[in-house]
Design a protein that fits this description.
It holds the Pfam family MGAT4A_C. One of its GO terms (biological process) is protein N-linked glycosylation. It is an enzyme of class 2 (transferase). InterPro entries: Galactose-bd-like_sf, Glyco_transf_54, MGAT4, MGAT4_A/B/C_C. By secondary structure, the protein is an alpha+beta fold. The protein is 14% helix and 30% strand. The chain is built from four helices and 16 strands. The strands form five sheets. The protein has a five-stranded antiparallel β-sheet. α2 crosses α3. The chain is elongated, with a radius of gyration of 22 Å. The N and C termini lie far apart (54 Å). The relative contact order is 0.15.
């Protein structure tokens, strides 16, 4: 009897983040290409999601090879048999292994998921009105640009070193009167992956194709953070269409944007 559309394989010695079900659902919805397995932990048999109709084939493969190799290896070998030739891991991951006792006699299990950021949460949580987020930086798999702007769990991580005039742009669906903008880059685990020479700009004009133009520099990053107050005033009829981070000089480190918080005049 079919009990559900999806099956999530977990172990009993894990911890997770608040609201993980919603995060998983959104990740499933975001997948545009064919997939057999979505992973919410990089480790072993933890947090592997399958469609229920594939379970019988997976079970047969595990039964066939259980004396030849560990089941977690079989899990990974199953995917290419189903024409998924690369792993699809949601990053940051959502589950962390906390157990230390191995099923193998005399062995201690110390494996931890390097992509798990369960203690990482947005601190400021601004108003952040609906917007489209764009960047010229190469995106590290799973660390999407919108992660930096959304109020939920996650952050943006580039997979390239920022070069002069690279940008990270937030384009509001409706122009806004902004009281304060705060951008934080870098995190404790990767403190060097931050903006070193970058500025925060705003635009109040768009061209015929509705692209923001004539950006104005309103602040520069200091130790990976920029905090600008009174970007626009409530009495000003000219409102902000876009804000953007623009790289002023090349840097050798990748960049993490952990949070962009936009506070509006109310």
């Amino acid at each position: 009897m079919k009990l559900s559309e999806y099956y999530l394989h977990l172990e009993d010695d894990v911890t997770t983040i608040e609201g993980y079900i919603k995060v998983m659902r959104n990740f499933i919805i975001s997948q545009k290409n064919r997939w057999t397995c979505l992973e919410f932990s990089e480790l072993g048999m933890i947090a592997k999601l399958y469609r229920t109709h594939d379970l019988e084939a997976l079970a047969k493969m595990v039964a066939l090879f259980y004396e030849e190799q560990p089941a977690d290896v079989t899990f990974l070998n199953f995917n290419p048999q189903m024409l998924q030739f690369s792993r699809i891991i949601r990053k940051p991951t959502l589950f962390q292994h906390i157990g230390r006792t191995s099923s193998l006699k005399g062995k201690t299990m110390l494996a931890e998921d390097r992509f798990f950021m369960g203690n990482f949460h947005k601190e400021l949580k601004g108003d952040n009105p609906p917007a489209k987020v764009l960047t010229s930086l190469k995106v590290h798999s799973g660390y999407l640009p919108e992660n930096a702007y959304n109020a939920g769990f996650g952050y943006f991580w580039s997979e390239s070193s920022p070069q002069k005039n690279d940008y990270f742009r937030v384009k509001f669906k409706k122009p806004q009167s902004i009281q304060r903008i705060i951008v934080k880059s870098g995190i404790d685990r990767f403190p060097k992956d931050k903006f070193y020479n970058a500025g925060l700009e705003i635009s109040s004009e768009v061209n015929k194709t509705n692209d923001c133009i004539n950006y104005k520099l309103i602040g520069k990053f200091l130790n990976g953070t920029v905090d600008v107050r009174n970007a626009t005033y409530p009495s000003n009829s000219i409102k902000t269409h876009c804000i953007q981070i623009r790289v002023l000089r090349p840097q050798k480190f990748w960049v993490i944007i952990q949070e962009i918080s936009v506070f509006l005049w109310h």
